[in-house]
Write a structure and sequence with these properties.
Layout (H helix, E strand, L loop, with lengths): L3 H21 L2 H5 L7 E2 L7 E2 L1 H12 L3 E6 L5 E5 L2 E5 L2 E5 L6
Antiparallel strand pairs: 1-2, 3-6, 4-5
C-alpha cells in the first residue's frame, strides 16, 4: 500500500498540472492527464463516459467561461495502492456571462 504522503504529493502534482490546463483553456494538453476510458462529471454535465465525451460535454462548455479556477488543495484527500491513486479535492471559480460580466 502506498503511503498517504506519497499519494498526496502525486495528487498535488496532477492537480497543479490540471489547474494550469484549465486556466490556459488547453484541452489538448489536459488530455495527457486522463485515460481514454475516464469516467467524469462536472458542474455542467452529469456522469460522462470517455475522454472525448468529457472534453466535449464538460471542458469545452465551461473552461472558456470561467476565471480564477483554483483547486482548494488545503482540503485535498488522497490515497493509493500500487498504480492506482484516488483524490478528492474541491475547486472554485467564477463564471462569466456572454457579455463578459
Amino acid at each position: 500500500m502506498m503511503e498517504q504522503r506519497e499519494a498526496e504529493q502525486i495528487a498535488r502534482e496532477w492537480l497543479t498540472a490540471m489547474h494550469g490546463y484549465v486556466r490556459a483553456v488547453d484541452y489538448t494538453g489536459a488530455r495527457v492527464l486522463f485515460h481514454d476510458d475516464v469516467v467524469g462529471f462536472g458542474t455542467y454535465s452529469g456522469i460522462l463516459d470517455g475522454l472525448d465525451h468529457l472534453m466535449a460535454e464538460q471542458w469545452q462548455q465551461v473552461w472558456g467561461t470561467i476565471t480564477g479556477f483554483t483547486f482548494l488543495v488545503e482540503q485535498l484527500r488522497a490515497g493509493g495502492d500500487g498504480a492506482v491513486i484516488w483524490a478528492i479535492c474541491p475547486w472554485d471559480s467564477q463564471g462569466r456571462r456572454d457579455d463578459g460580466s
